[in-house]
Amino acid sequence: MFGVEVDFGQNAASGARAKWTSDRVVNAHMAVFGDTGMGKTHTLRKIVSAMQETGHPRLRFHVFDAHGDVSIPGESAVAFHESADFGFNPLELNADPEFGGVRKRIQSLIGAIKRTSVRLGPRQERALTKLLTGLYKREGFIADNPGTWQAGGDRRYPTLPDAIEFGKERLKAYHVGANQRAIRALEEVNRCARAMRAKKATLQNVDDDGAARLERELEAARVRAIDAYKDAVCAIETGEEFDEALDLEGQKETLESVVDRLENLYQIGIYRSTPPPLDPRSRVWRYIIKSLSKDEKKLFTLTRLETIFTRAVQRGEQSEVLDCIVIDEAHLYQDKEEDYIVNRMAREARKFGVSMLFASQSPTDFADVLLASLGTKVILGLDPNFWPQAVRKLGLTESQLKSIVPQRRILLQMKGIGQLGSAASLVIL
């Protein structure tokens, strides 16, 4: 049994050590509050170091570093940016019939997008859902058949470029009135024609055999396209074959906007088919996201948290802390909605072996639903302008806040198991 432990210093009143132990507090979630220069980064390093020393050997830290300055000894750090050729595939499925599947993966991605400032409208959300469902189906991953959700062999999960290509094929099908197999065949005709024109332009003397071969390739592509269009027409028996085309009727602009959104997502540089080079032997994985915009940081963090939480729930209840989420500049990820992934994890992730560690300048940045879910608060020193709200949100007094001496004395609130509230202790560092 590994009870994760952090020694914060000496209790100023009793002289005893002010130790935080994960199996004695109501949950292992913690927030560190401090104005600029109060030592938030140093405190984060101290907490992570102590948790590594006393925690389970399989305890993994996920550090979401908004400014790129929360380095941890022994870490594996990766910077995410627009020109990176690696990232996380947002369309990779969890194949577990209970916790994964096509619908949950699509809704998770849409949910993260909707939390940013540029949100999806109802029609865009519906169009994106249908688009991604159709893409999964084309690749053999059927929403209603859990037996098809596992990749392997020649089967791979689709990626954002696949979704973009699929969306453009649907738009072309809308314009020319054909199915997508026929569209791909038509594109092959165009490709062969362009290739033949390019070769003729670059070679001054194309021999007869070479010209004949190019003509045969083009003719073969034409035959395949004609056959594909013929098959599309001959397959019509009940009229249901046109459901997809009818669904696009009047939706052209909506689908175009969805494809544009997918292209913008891909350009961010966080969603790639090649996984990031994080060392599996390292217990600390640091995601450096300083180059991303506010919306992009939020999108990256929320989608990654969704994956970590789903995997934690899937492994079942745990008596040990096996994952620690460290979120710097936590005010960037606040939302008061109950089903918001950050709030859900603060409420539910404890029993699945997940600890959450937040850092921010003030508790005023936090939604009340999140603050109420934190077992421990560490106050390093707040700007006096935040004192009135901190008194209300944390149940402190102004005299307690005045007793803090930056980098020498802090306030520590720990709610023990079975306690309704938590008194603040002055701790000497």
From TrEMBL:
UniProt entry tagged with the keyword Nucleotide-binding: yes
Positions in coiled-coil regions: 211-265
Keywords: ATP-binding, Coiled coil, Nucleotide-binding
Pfam families, alphabetized: DUF87
GO molecular function, one term: ATP binding
Organism superkingdom: Bacteria
The UniProt record lists the keyword Coiled coil: yes
InterPro entries noted in UniProt: AAA+_ATPase (IPR003593), HerA_central (IPR002789), P-loop_NTPase (IPR027417), T4SS_component (IPR051162)
All residue ranges annotated as the AAA+ ATPase domain in the record: 26-385
Protein name: ATP-binding protein
Origin species: Cupriavidus campinensis
Taxon lineage: Bacteria, Pseudomonadati, Pseudomonadota, Betaproteobacteria, Burkholderiales
